[in-house]
Queue: 2 jobs
Job 1
Amino acid sequence: MNHTAAANQNMGANDPKGFASARANVLRPGAEAVATKGWLAANRWLLLRRLSQLSILALFLLGPWLGIWIVKGNLSSSLTLGVLPLTDPFVLAQSLAAGHLPYREALLGGGIVLAFYLLVGGRTYCSWVCPVNIVTDTAAWLRRRLGLRGGKAADTRLRYWLLFFVLGLSALTGTLAWEWVNPVSMLHRGLIFGFGLAWGVVGGIFFYDLLIAGRGWCGRICPMGAFYGLLGRTALLRVSAGQRARCDDCMDCFAVCPEPQVIRPALKAIGQEHPLILDHNCTTCGRCADVCSKNVFRITTRFDRSES
Amino acid sequence: MNNQQTQRAGKLQPLPRRRFLKEMAGVAGGACLLAGGVGLYSKQASALPATAIRPPGALAEADFLSACVRCGLCVRDCPYFTLKLAELGDGVATGTPYFNARAIPCEMCEDIPCVAACPSGALDRSLTDIGEARMGLAVLIDQENCLNFLGLRCDVCYRVCPVIDKAITLERVHNPRSDRHAMLLPTVHSDHCTGCGKCERACVLPDAAAIKVLPIAVAQGSRAGHYRRGWEEKDAAGRSLIGEQIELPVRGMEAQPYGDTRLRPDGPQVPPPAPPAGLNSGWKP
């Protein structure tokens, strides 16, 4: 009892227990932002993100649906306008680990994608491109709305181990090990080429995130996200809590953030002075900027350390 | 209380080593289990069903699975919609290209667009002549229902073969059932069959075809390398390696060539001996 009271008093300060309980209490993060900023401004980055995800998907679907072949293939490897090859570097890494040296196109395509995400930030793939993001975002939204709590979430480091073992397994079995089960490629390929039973895998992730572990797939298990996360250390595009002086500790950003642990160092100046979120697991989704009624956050570059 | 507080405050400091190692071991073990499950599943799921034929130029199955990134570019560039990407539940490694010859066979395009489209090298670009493709091997697998084996002149598989008279020939043999007709048996030759599957597609049987394209590993036995084929050795040496054979005369057939045991109408007519009775009489036709 004593502890809880102390935790509540400390809420919003340095006490992690305070954060946890407050976060669980937020059922509708962003409601205040909608009231003060208007619905459109309070969903700006979310809408842009959905637009980005759906337009990329649409580019792939224009061919098979309408016969307009701008992009052929799928996210694993594609050819745009007959000239631009793009290949998923994670798939490529598995193939290399399996002992196959791909043709120049695949290597070139992988290099282009790799360079892009090194520049922009690896996990922008997760929030701006990956189709599973829509599934897990929906699960997270529903989990909040239904007030579901508890469950058992895996350790956030599981993904790195899984990435390590998946590459090892590729070497051991001589196959692209994760591609046997990868829900990201299964969902994208399924939408373009036909699903079969892959709906089951996507549904499994939805219900895992909804019922067992909030943000459990993208934030803890997905080795593809871990791979792209490792590309995030040099990202130019970063979120800054530039107006952190205005923060009123409403916890909305923590409630919507798919990787809530990345916010604290920047927002509360813990272990760093500047307000930039430099954690490589920040997906630069901008949802924190959306739901903040005080406009604390902005998407900017890693060189922008100003607090204004 | 004091101790508890320091422990809670310690959350921001590096974890004590023992706890850290214990946690790490748990996480690593969990990841290892997950990866192990994936590995076992992949082993189980990498078995290719015999009706699933890989595109032309595909590497051997094990190498193919290390190379194919499952992008579907070969499927997109196949002008006849032959190729499709395996969906989960098809029994083929999910996302990899294959075709079912009975549904749509390979039309053997001269420019082999599927191979040109492959960015990974799972389809080998050293294949430039589609005649050299070895997608599988046709096997006339059902000799009980094949119409030619029944003595009819169906010949459809032979007629549609793009490598007619090389990959499939009609071999004339005596029809023992009628005893006065010939059977022309479609016969596949592995040194020319590309495995395109047009024969399987064209087979006139109502459901399953009598001739089927199978993966080469299923269709073909391994060559018995330790056997010398006498006739090949003879051709290579220009003479028989075992010297002249002794010819023993056959009584009553001295006038005929050695080995020709047929009775001549103008020769001495020997009535066939009456078969002795009993199981162990030793009589042979």
Job 2
Amino acid sequence: MIALALGQSRLKFNAVFGITVTTLLLVTAIAGPWLVGYDPLKLDLPSRLTGPSARHLLGADEFGRDVLSRLVNGARTSAWIAFATVLFALVTGTVLGVAAGFLRGWTDRILMMINDAFLAFPGLLLALGIMAVIGASRDGIVLALGLAYMPIVVRVVRSAVLSIREREYVEASRVMGNSEFITMARHVLPNCVAPIIVLATTMFGWVILSESALSFLGLGVPPPAASWGSMLSTARPYISQAPHLIVLPGLCISITLLGINMLGDAVRDWLDPKL
Amino acid sequence: MTRFILTRIASAIPTLILVSIAVFGLLRFIPGDPAALMLGDLAKPGQVEAMRVQMGLDKPVVAQYLIWIGNVLTGDFGTSISTGQDVLPLMLNAFSVSATIVLVGVFIAALIAVPAGMLAAWRQNSLGDVGVIAVSTILLSIPSFWLGLMLLLAFGLHLGWLPVIGYVPFSQGFWPALVYIVLPVTTLVLSEAGPIARMARASTIEVARLEYITHARAKGLSEAAVMWRHAFKNAFAPTLTLIGFVLGSLLGGIAVIETVFTLPGLGRLLVDAIYARDYPVVQGTMLFVAAIYVVVNLVVDLLYPFLDPRVAA
């Protein structure tokens, strides 16, 4: 009984914490620049590498730029890239996954062969390769990460479609004389929404992590724009002089990811209560 | 069984061919003439033309691909533009660095995370279970490169116990080499233990609900016997797949951790080659890394039926 209560309060805590952090991220991303009111690119050389002060609440970086306003703009960068990337991967992946699962036959075989080749690139490798070709830029990351995550969406959507298309209500729709397209749009696709939502939540976290990793490697958001990953990378030479420049952006990434992961767990528990 | 093994091995071949086409094709999209890039800014037009012929760029694309893949199959990955060295030895050296850290790190991570996840599942929703979930979710959320920087700040700079950057191969003595890999390996253990523990927990919960476990309990077996003799193998199978997946993707280089600790690994080789626009190295490394991934996943698939014989049936 106690165990069950503990389990249930954990689920509730996951949901509350996840929603709070995600909302905070979105509010900061949208309204942040007006809240801080300090230019993230403005140089203040006398303050360079200083710790928290009245002038710079969270200190200043190696060019004397205000860390707080750069962190806030980093949230904006992360949220925008994650949103655009997830949207791109979901739309392209769903179209291809539905096409493969519903048309079957040769379309399915060829699409899946290409898809599996994409999936044979581990982790960030495909995104790194695409960044090598198009060069570091904000829209470039969206394209690179979007293409890198699309194959997973294709797989998930295809298997959802394959299992749903055999159900009786889909059969019924055909028998009633509905065209394949109508059957697809009205009866199959809406029932794929649950796995897509679960995947999208998880993917949001992956993209934020990948973007910060790419930016940390110098292949993400180009300077001087603020991104948590690139802040870590440019602060690395000053790690012993100004550790706060390393601690703060990492804390931002970790708390954001923790919130999204817990939200993801909550969403999965809610939509797929089996586990 | 033999049929399963052969089919699975055969299915990896088309994947590898498609991967090589994808890598070759991707690098064709790079703006600019590879021959001109190879020679640098000071090249005269005549030289560029000669280089194009030498590199086979005057031939049709399909022929270029076949020549390249033919060379790759004989171990010739071309030469690096920036250093003039052969790409293959560059990759193998870097691979030995990455592989040492990854094999040690993932092994230790699995040794800790698999029992932790399974015990948590066995006592589902107990305080211990919630503790394992909390720790693994937190670890899962900390980016490995930041974790590495924090460890470096604490143990390298603040306490001064361990060297901050660099690498010494094991061929130059066990202790010096060990001292240099402690921090990167610890980083890897902490960041990989999270997902492995969660997977072990989830798959154990699923197995624990099956009827044969209830049956084993009904026979009067002790909880320990039920868990280790009956549940372990089936619950471990999906976890092994995840470990193989992790191993396959990390063996190809852990670019971010290698960057934090300035290790000359495969991930760093690729990132540096991208910076330097050293395309033979980029092309070779991408193919090499993807091939490692495909092969490791193949090996894991082949091991799977030994844990869960239903697969091969």
